[in-house]
Structure formats: C-alpha cells, structure tokens
Amino acid sequence: MSGIPGWLLRHQVSVEPYLGDSAYGPRYGPLVVVRCFLDQATRLVRAADGREVTSSSTVYARLDTVAPAGSRITLPDGRHTTVIAALRRDGSGLGTPDHLEVQLV
C-alpha cells in the first residue's frame, strides 16, 4: 500500500499554509481545499517546541499535503484552527498507508 486510500478521505478542510513571519505578522500561502479524514477527538500532543498541548482534532491527509506548524485550517463546520504539528507517516514501502497526520489546536 503506498498512500492512504481515497475512500477514507471523507472530509474536506481548507488549508492556508504558514510561510513565516513578516514585519506585519504571520504570512500564509493561498488557500487549498484538501480531502482528508477528520478525527475530532481531544488528546494531549507535543508541539514542535516540546510543550505538551491539547489537540482538538486530527486531520489525516495524503503525504503531498502542505500544512506546516502554524498553518490556518478551516474545518467542515466552519471552525478556524491552527496546526500544532504535521507528522509524516511514511512506511517506505511497507504495507502501511502513507499519510500526513496534522494535529490541530
């Protein structure tokens, strides 16, 4: 299995990828609609800086999805949230579904 099967990607979210900070605040790339599987469960996760934070939702998307930490996400219900961490789950040819796990505030 090379990627997450399309039939599992039942939801759509809007992603504005974080590009970095400017003199006027954070910069974001153009909005992209991403097919994904959305798991709205609260859990404790570790942020990129090592802090433990509470994640309200997790998005599972194709590996080529661009959603670095700090990106803005709009969920199907219209709620706006921010990416805590985006974790590549790449089995490198093993029989696992390769995907990007995106943890959200």
Please specify the SSE layout and strand pairing.
Elements: E1 11-16, E2 18-22, E3 25-28, E4 32-39, E5 43-46, E6 52-55, E7 57-61, E8 72-74, E9 80-89, E10 99-104
Antiparallel strand pairs: 1-4, 1-8, 2-3, 4-7, 5-6, 7-10, 8-9, 9-10
Describe this structure in words.
The protein is mainly beta and 105 residues long. The radius of gyration is 14 Å and the shape is globular. The strands form three sheets. It has a six-stranded antiparallel beta barrel. It has a two-stranded antiparallel ribbon with strand order 2-3. The chain has one domain (6-104): Thrombin, subunit H (Beta Barrel). It is built from no helices and ten strands.
Brief write-up:
With 105 residues, the protein is an all-beta fold. It has strands at residues 11-16, 18-22, 25-28, 32-39, 43-46, 52-55, 57-61, 72-74, 80-89, 99-104.
Rg from C-alpha positions? 14 Å
Main sheet characteristics: 6 strands, antiparallel, barrel
Q: Regions with pLDDT < 50 over 5+ consecutive residues?
A: none
Order of helices and strands: EEEEEEEEEE
CATH architecture: Beta Barrel
CATH topology: Thrombin, subunit H
Q: Which overall shape is indicated by the principal axes computed on the Cα atoms?
A: globular
Oligomer: single chain
Measure the end-to-end span: 30 Å
* Spatial strand sequence of the major β-sheet: 1-4-7-10-9-8
Name of the CATH first level = Mainly Beta
Overall number of domains: 1
The proportion of strand residues reads: over 45%
**Helical element count?**
0
